[in-house]
Amino acid sequence: METESMEYRYLGISGLKVSVLGFGNMTSSWAEGSEDWNFNCTDKCIRNGVNFFDTAEIYGLGVAETILGKNIKQGGYDRDDLIITTKLNPSGFGIQGLSRKRMRQAIDNSLERMQLDYVDVLYIHKFDPEVPLEESIRVINEIIDNDKAFYWGTSDFTPQQISECFAICEKHGWIPPIVEQCEYHMFDRGTFERDYAPVFDQYGLGTTVWSPLCQGFLSGRYNDGNIPEGRLINSPFLDYFKECYDKYIGSRKEAAIRTLTGLKTVADELGCSQAQLAIAWVIKNPDVSTAIMGASSPRHLDDNLGAVDAMKKLTPEILARIEDLLGNRPTPSMNWRNFTPNTPRR
User: Fold this and answer.
1) Key word NADP present in the record (predicted)?
2) Catalytic amino acids?
3) Nearest to 8 by CA among 217, 17, 223, 187
């Protein structure tokens, strides 16, 4: 169900139209611990025009898929209005990785957990170095031929691996991917804005980006440089969280505080929250098809949904101020066609 307050974009060069904000339920297997809370998040998203819902078999080893399926069934929503995606992971379910044997069974297991006949997009969730990529892509096409998925994509592939996917599909006449799911936020820009740019241009690839708030560090709750008490205390991702904290804040605390408090000032002037500003900045990028929101409490979801309105306030002048605060615009790759000796690099 589309709403006037939500913006929708085509997912790559496909005819699939997705809300610019999506909902990811990775935390559903451990956050809050309430089925009512999980359903209310899904329902609130749909009522606010969100039509894109992302999950994966690895999230809670199937628990997140089960929760999403229950929520959809409980709400009685029109399946045609929703874009449901899941991901098959090379680890976590035995030793067979992304082999034809396991993928054929894995999609059936995922659909059974979600109580669905099909998913709209099926991702290869990380590159599997132990299985020929051609084998995985062949079975993805079989899954599409059997109407268990309509499109497919990659998740956290390198640009080179994505190009290999297209080469394999062209060789065999197979359906190519339409989307890459990757990390993108104010603190980590190089991979998305520089490394993936040629792939976006060459193949018209869509993107469903994750962690637009950088583990919550851009939400405003870390502006003093410290971790709030009790943060992720029950999370199975605590080690990863600490690693990210050290990378983006702990190792450069003074600079990070200046950036974060500066962003707070800009957000206050625009009349939005700092979290809304950070997400709005991400979806302002035309190479972003949808930004996947997570939520560890209902109030966070309410706040994040306001990012679409905040995006409309990002004028060129405001974006320039944000660039000055971030100071991390990626350096473009050298264009050797236009390079001559003794010409200054730009």
Assistant:
1) yes
2) 59
3) 17
